[in-house]
Amino acid sequence: MRRIIGPTSYALPAIAALTPFAAVKGDPSFTLTVDGTGFTPASLVRWNGSARATTYVSRTRLTMTVAASDVAATGSATLTVSNPSPGGGISAGKSFAVTNMFLDVPIGYLLRRPIEGIADAGITEGCGARLFCPEVAVTRDQMAVLLLRAEHGSGYAPPAASGTVFGDVAKGDFASAFIEQLSTEGITAGCGSGNYCPTVPVTRAPMAKFLLKAHDGGSYVPSQPPTGIFSDVSPTDPFAAFIEELSRRGITSGCGGGKYCPNQNVTRAQMAAFLARTFSIPLAP
């Protein structure tokens, strides 16, 4: 009796991650690692549908070379993995971004232009490793550096810190000189009880006051009393006049729905937009 063997079942290849996940325009040629499942020695990585020379590492890893010409302009590419028969099939696409400046700020990112604008102005170099960390909250020590560089210029260096102005800011701490200079300029009196709270995230209410005092001077007080233009900011709120002045100057339109979200943390991307609008820093193209 002849034995009949049925067809073998194969899983389609699938891409889980790309390393690196993005490139900056003008990068030299580099090796791209594709991690996933269902890979075979005959698998081919395809860049925008074009098969590329592929190195099989294991059932869960492939590599390919990205040419300098692939990242000569901003945009995005779609990567897929195709397996020839048996087990044929093509994976779902995985997007690879080519950015202007920061790997985690793709060309279509909502606040890309102010982010790259403040970087072009020398106010920030990002958060390290060619990243900007746009969705991470800004802490009060980071804010001190960003504010004073926006106010005085990218090369600004404040006087050395004494370590005696705030109880929680020692002489050798990160941004200690910038923090003490904020106090010297009358931009801040700290967070209470003689402290500055350097690692605490900045929220949108006090940020309004910080921005306007850094721009107009430490003695600045809005001339117009608050009228309650945002439904979640009472006219009796100590920051209300500053928040409404930001609105009058076109620096903010709130967080949507007629609200300002005063207690919401300010992200690094939002901080870039606040700085660019307050200090008239040119936006990136």
Number of domains: 2
* End-to-end gap: 75 Å
Class from helix and strand fractions: alpha+beta
Amount of beta strand: 15-25%
Main sheet attributes: strand count, strand direction, barrel closure: 6 strands, mixed
Would you spell out the secondary-structure blueprint of this structure?
Elements: E1 14-19, E2 22-24, E3 30-37, E4 44-47, E5 50-52, E6 54-58, E7 61-66, E8 75-83, E9 89-90, E10 94-99, H1 112-120, H2 140-152, H3 176-184, H4 204-216, H5 240-248, H6 268-278
Parallel strand pairs: 2-10
Antiparallel strand pairs: 1-3, 3-7, 4-5, 4-8, 6-7, 8-9, 8-10
Please provide a brief summary of the model.
With 285 residues, this protein is an alpha+beta fold.
Walk me through what this model shows.
With 285 residues, the protein is α+β, with helices and mostly antiparallel strands. It has two domains: 14-99, Sandwich (Immunoglobulin-like); 112-278, no CATH class. The chain has helices at 112-120, 140-152, 176-184, 204-216, 240-248, 268-278, and strands spanning 14-19, 22-24, 30-37, 44-47, 50-52, 54-58, 61-66, 75-83, 89-90, 94-99. Strands 2, 4, 5, 8, 9 and 10 form a six-stranded mixed beta sheet that branches. A four-stranded antiparallel beta sheet has the order 1-3-7-6, with no helix packed on it. Helix 2 (140-152) packs across helix 3 (176-184). The longest helix is centred in the middle third of the chain and has 13 residues, at 140-152. It is elongated and about 75 Å long. Mean pLDDT is 94; it is low at 1-9.
